[in-house]
């Protein structure tokens, strides 16, 4: 059995014989191999998460009498998601309203009495102590009205808390209560998240942290090849104690449909620059594990095996087999089509 090396050598020899006297070889464009500056990237696994995700808790006590949405239901911003029995809150509001109206009436009387006493005092009919007493009653009535207004506002707020509404448009992810259940302030009711504002979180190895922090060059690619637009890049100012990685958070400017929290995407991050030999991908002949180019020496093309690295758009990096200044043919396949 022939070794893989001898098979490759035989293939190259056959290809070299096939191009002797080829008109295509002389008509083809030749390229001088030069070093170019390229950017190295690493591909990281990123996780999509919702920017807006929260748990709504009760802000007043009461019994749940309406539960119009459930887990996985979509909700609009400010949509009713839970209603509590508001009997107690309405009674409190009625009392607060009556107290404020009474305080307003008391203040009106105190103002009229003070004006009357003040006029009499200026006519030397009323004493200074009577005027002071009227003024004290007026200030007390003002303070009482302010107190009842604050109580009324609190009662109105407590009544509004009996209608629990969605803080933003999104999806209900968890429900912690049942219809007919009594709840207390601070008790979790529902959790949800928004699909309108998403971000991607990934873990960046320590050796790349400083370069990425300075350059801020990254791209996000989905499984089906779509590139997502990045609005901002946020670095956590500390490394994980166990993995020694830095968390990188990428906010998406316009999340597309089909992208959901919890899904995985690829995050390609630029981690450095270096000089490398690049040639057009079309100049490289690919046959199984063989990679070769046609090197022009003394006007004649000769097939030479090369070792290739990463592809960069329509070019490929040459790791071994070529040196700067050598000339190669622009299309390897064209030689075989002759």
Automatic annotation (TrEMBL):
Pfam families reported for this sequence: Beta-barrel_RND_2, BSH_RND, HH_MFP_RND, RND-MFP_C
Record's subcellular location: Cell envelope
Signal sequence segment: 1-27
Molecular function, one GO term: efflux transmembrane transporter activity
Domain Multidrug resistance protein MdtA-like barrel-sandwich hybrid, chain residue ranges per copy: 52-188
Presence of the UniProt keyword Coiled coil in the record: yes
The keyword Coiled coil appears for this protein: yes
Coiled-coil segments: 93-165
Limits of the CusB-like beta-barrel domain: 201-270
Matching InterPro entries: Beta-barrel_RND_2, MdtA-like_BSH, MdtA-like_C, MdtA-like_HH, RND_pump_MFP
Multidrug resistance protein MdtA-like alpha-helical hairpin domain span: 93-162
Major place of residence: other
GO cellular component terms, semicolon-separated: efflux pump complex
Domain Multidrug resistance protein MdtA-like C-terminal permuted SH3: 275-329
Origin superkingdom: Bacteria
PANTHER family: MULTIDRUG RESISTANCE PROTEIN MDTA (PTHR30469), RESISTANCE-NODULATION-CELL DIVISION (RND) EFFLUX MEMBRANE FUSION PROTEIN-RELATED (PTHR30469:SF18)
Name of this protein: RND family efflux transporter MFP subunit
Taxon lineage: Bacteria, Pseudomonadati, Pseudomonadota, Gammaproteobacteria, Alteromonadales
């Amino acid at each position: 059995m022939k070794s893989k090396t001898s098979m490759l050598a035989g293939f190259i020899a056959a290809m070299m014989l096939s191009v002797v006297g080829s008109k295509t070889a002389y008509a083809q464009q030749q390229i001088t191999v030069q070093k170019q500056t390229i950017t190295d990237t690493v591909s990281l696994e990123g996780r999509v998460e919702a920017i807006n995700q929260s748990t709504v808790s009760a802000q007043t006590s009461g019994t749940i009498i309406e539960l119009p949405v459930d887990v996985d239901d979509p909700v609009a911003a400010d949509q009713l998601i839970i209603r509590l029995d508001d009997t107690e809150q309405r009674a409190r509001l009625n009392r607060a309203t009556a107290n404020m109206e009474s305080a307003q009436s008391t203040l009106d009387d105190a103002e009229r009495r003070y004006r009357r006493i003040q006029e009499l005092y200026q006519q030397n009919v009323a004493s200074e102590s009577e005027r002071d007493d009227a003024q004290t009653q007026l200030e007390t009535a003002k303070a009482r009205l302010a107190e009842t207004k604050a109580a009324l506002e609190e009662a109105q707020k407590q009544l509004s808390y009996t209608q629990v509404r969605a803080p933003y448009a999104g999806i209900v992810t968890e429900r912690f209560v049942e219809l007919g259940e009594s709840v207390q302030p601070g008790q979790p009711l529902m959790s949800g998240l928004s699909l309108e504002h998403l971000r991607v979180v990934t873990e960046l190895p320590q050796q790349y942290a400083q370069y990425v922090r300075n350059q801020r060059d990254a791209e996000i690619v989905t499984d089906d090849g779509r590139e997502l637009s990045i609005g901002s890049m946020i670095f956590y100012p500390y490394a994980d104690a166990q993995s020694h990685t830095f968390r990188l958070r990428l906010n998406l400017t316009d999340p597309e449909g089909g992208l959901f929290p919890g899904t995985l995407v690829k995050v390609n991050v630029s981690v450095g620059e270096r000089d490398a030999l690049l040639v057009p991908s079309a100049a490289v002949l690919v046959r199984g594990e063989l990679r070769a180019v046609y090197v022009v020496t003394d006007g004649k093309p000769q097939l030479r095996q090369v070792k290739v690295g990463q592809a960069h758009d329509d070019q490929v990096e040459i790791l071994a087999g070529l040196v700067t200044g050598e000339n190669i043919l622009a299309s390897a396949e064209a030689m075989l089509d002759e």
